[in-house]
Structure prediction request, 232 residues.
Amino acid sequence: MRNGTDIKVFYLYAFAGMKFKNLYFTLFLMIYLATVMGNIIIIVLTKMDHNLQTPMYFLLRNLAFLDICYTSTTLPQMLVNLIVEQLAISLSACIVQLFVFLSLAASESSLLATMAYDRYVAICNPLRYSVIMSKEVCFHTVSGTWVIGSVYGAIHTANTFRLPLCGSNVLNHYFCDIPPLLKISCIDTLPNEATVFALGGFLMLGCFLMIFGSYSMELMEIAENSTQQLYR
Prediction:
C-alpha cells in the first residue's frame, strides 16, 4: 500500500484500441470550437448592446463564461488523449482539474437555479423586478454560486485525495474524475461514495426544485393572466 502523495503522475488510458480516432477527434474538436465560439458571441453581443444590460443578460453572460470554462476543463485533454493513447498527467494537475471540474459543475447548477428565480420575479412580480434583482443582488448572487461551487469542489477533492492509493496509476478515463480515482484506492470507498451521492443529491435536488417551482409559478401566472383577458 502506498499513499496517494507517493504517486507523482497518472496515466489516462480511456481510448485504448478505439477505432476511427481521427473521426472522433475531428467531431469533438468541431463541437468544442462551436461551444466556445457560440458562448463568446453571446458574451460579446450582450455586452456591446446597451439595451441588454439587464439582470437576465448579466446572468446569461456568466452562464456562457461558465460553459466555456467547464468544457475547456476536460475536452481539450480528451482531444489530446485521442492522439496520445497513454496521456500522462501530474498529481498536482489531476487535483486541480478535479477541483475545477466539480466547482464549475456545481456553480453552473446553482446559476441555472438563480436564472429560473430571475424569470419568476420578472413574470410574477414585474413592478418590483428592478428592486429585487438589482445590480448588487445579481453580483452577490453570482458570487454566491461561485462560492457554493468552490466549497463543493473542495470537499470532494479533499475527500478523494486523502485516500491511500495502490496498484496501477492508470486511470481508465480521459480526465481526473472521482470514480476512476476511487477504483485505485486500497481501502473501502463507501464513505466517499456516500458523500458524493449525499452532497451531489442535495445540490442537484435543491436546484431542480427551485427551477421546477419557479417555472411552475410562472406558468400558473401566465395561465391566470390569459384567463382574465378572455373574460374581459
Summary: Confidence is low (pLDDT under 50) at residues 1-5. The radius of gyration is 22 Å. Strands lie at 2-3, 9-12, 87-90, 164-165, 170-171. The longest strand covers residues 9-12.
